[in-house]
Amino acid sequence: MAQTMQTLPENGHKDSSFAPNRHAFHADDLKLQPVADKVLGGERLGFEDGLALYRSGDILAIGWLANYVRERLHGNVAYFNVNRHINPTNVCVAACRLCAFGRRKDTPGSYTMALEEAWETAASGYSEAVTEFHIVGGLHPDLPFQYFLDLVAGLKERFPQVHIKAFTMVEVAFLAKRAKLTIEETLRQLKQAGVDSLPGGGAEIFADRVRHIICDHKIDGDQWLDTARIAHKIGLRSNATMLYGHVENEEDRVDHLLRLRALQDETGGFQTFIPLAFHPDNTPLEHLPRTTGLLDIKQIAVSRLLLDNFSHIKAYWQMLTPKIAQISLRFGADDLDGTVIEEKIYHDAGATTPQGMRREELIRLIREAGREPIERDTMYRPVTRSENTFTVAV
Ligand code: V47
């Protein structure tokens, strides 16, 4: 039986004067016609549709469909934010093969910030007031749970207006185990300390076969999804990611997206989906080639089409490069992420992008893509700036 697509509320910030003057859908690859019929008829796509999209080289037809959905949800608007990354430690017991960031304790290059240092880091960088701290780090074998509660509480005290998006499902599950608390209790204490939402990292690819190769000591796919389910239940929204372009195949990618879609049907707690292209440099998988531009753009488009119940698809410029991220704004993405300031995880893995970008540059990228830039906070509320302060429309 045909499943009807989940209807997302159309976005409140949509530019009502935007009138797309689109040409009719055309596919050179005739296998895409049944997929197009479903998209245009508001019918939910299935596993085989996902495979047909991944297996097609007809990027303009795939992009047309993704752009159709993206403009139906967001009109001509494209979002960005002014955020800062804080990585309190790179010490990690997981030793994932996908990662160039983590270090064993007491090995060269390992670091752990004292709390004062983390709070000072939060205040450094560009002078513009940030609206979000994005905090992720390694699975440190000795740091007590209290360190993380104090870190967050100290940030909230110093920067009460800044949204704290902190700790992946993997970190939460690790902290719970170390503190001998349930996942729910761990999340409740983090929320109480000041965590406002969770980032989407650590999801990688849910399929066990792939996880065993790229991150065998991490929680498995079901545990990642269960942790997200509990976070959503207690009122913490989160993002979701997928790491692609390593040893996974097309079935694994479709499976990953459909498992996220099923959880979103259940909880509605995901804000944004971010596909992450694998960067092999300095990892044990550095013999693998980097993703191509075509796969990066196709991944954005397929995500937009399969994740019909996710409001936002983010083209994370740090990982895609600003050039590909900009083009993605016409292939399904509605968000570029933000100024970032001091990205570490990709730069340890050989990323050549700058470690941050100014607000004006993000605006220029969006305008040149023919989109209307809107600065948002983490909850996608428009931000209005004056000098170095900001207000959020609620
Ligand atoms: O979970 C690690 C990935 C993630 C590599 O929620 C790598 O708004 C590529 O999740 N090559 C962390 N990827 C980043 C992340 C994120 C980024 C931006 C925004 C948000 C959000 C979340 O980075 C990890 C892992 O999947 N990663 N190493 C690597 N060598």
Features:
13% strand, 15 helices, three-stranded parallel β-sheet, 394 residues, binds ligand V47, globular, alpha/beta
Question: Can you describe this structure?
Answer:
With 394 residues, the protein is of the alpha/beta class. It contains 15 helices and twelve strands. The chain has helices spanning 33-40, 47-55, 59-74, 115-123, 145-158, 169-179, 183-193, 208-214, 221-233, 250-267, 293-306, 317-320, 322-328, 345-348, 359-368; strands at 77-81, 83-86, 132-135, 163-166, 197-198, 237-244, 270-277, 312-313, 335-338, 372-375, 383-386, 389-392. Helix 11 links the parallel strand 7 and strand 8. Helix 4 packs parallel to helix 5. The radius of gyration is 20 Å and the shape is globular. Ligand V47 is lined by residues 98-101, 136, 168, 199-202, 204, 239, 241, 243, 274, 276, 278-279, 283, 316, 337, 345, 349.
Describe how the helices and strands are arranged.
Layout: H1 33-40, H2 47-55, H3 59-74, E1 77-81, E2 83-86, H4 115-123, E3 132-135, H5 145-158, E4 163-166, H6 169-179, H7 183-193, E5 197-198, H8 208-214, H9 221-233, E6 237-244, H10 250-267, E7 270-277, H11 293-306, E8 312-313, H12 317-320, H13 322-328, E9 335-338, H14 345-348, H15 359-368, E10 372-375, E11 383-386, E12 389-392
Parallel strand pairs: 1-9, 1-10, 2-3, 3-4, 5-6, 6-7, 7-8
Antiparallel strand pairs: 11-12
This protein binds ligand V47.
Mean pLDDT: 92
Number of helices: 15
Low-confidence region ranges: none
Q: Give the DSSP E fraction (strand runs of 2 or more residues).
A: 5-15%
* Amino-to-carboxy terminus distance: 41 Å
Roughly how many Å is the radius of gyration? 20 Å
Bound molecules: ligand V47
